[in-house]
Amino acid sequence: MIAWRNPGRPIILASQSARRKEILRLLGFSFDVCMPEAIDESVFFVNDAPDDAVRRLAVAKAQSVAGSFPQAVVLGADTVVVLGSRVFGKPESRTEAHAMLASLAGSLHRVITGVALVCADRGFIGAGAAVTEVEFRAVSYEEIEEYLEGDEYCDKAGAYAIQGKAMAFVEGIRGCYYNVVGLPVSETIRIFTDFIRSQE
Questions:
Q1: How crowded is residue 34: how many other Cβ atoms within 10 Å of its Cβ?
Q2: pTM above 0.85?
Q3: For position 37, what pLDDT does the model report?
Q4: Could you tell me which residues are beta bridge partners of residue 116?
């Protein structure tokens, strides 16, 4: 039995993300899903660095679910795309999505995912953040417009899905691929391991 995937308590994913569900399944976790409460995410990015902000936001999402399931361990996550000092979340419109992709074209940007594990019964809060660098080749206006004809961009930080048709934009990556998809593997395993060790 692999310890980190068997915390001895129910596991709840505080996200409806199909990508995060699939990554957890690939890792061998058994879990339920519960949507976190609505949170004003913008307030987390006012003063903090992006990695601190996504870490705190992931904790807030997990805590919003953990109070209702104190015996469970609740996993929360949040992903943003950072270009220089600009932080891109999910686009609110096609126009905003086009502007994001045009900014990312021909540039190196960072994808940061905050991950948190909360167990209310044990008073446990574990959190971290992972960073992956992604380089886009020069992408034309027409290529962006063609990409936006589908709905793949709608719920994605930075308006793209690296595992989808946006793979054509990518020149290269440095770091965890699955972090760009939505959940960093090593950081997730580390946090589950920390929880198990906290019970020893």
A1: 17
A2: yes
A3: 84
A4: 76, 127
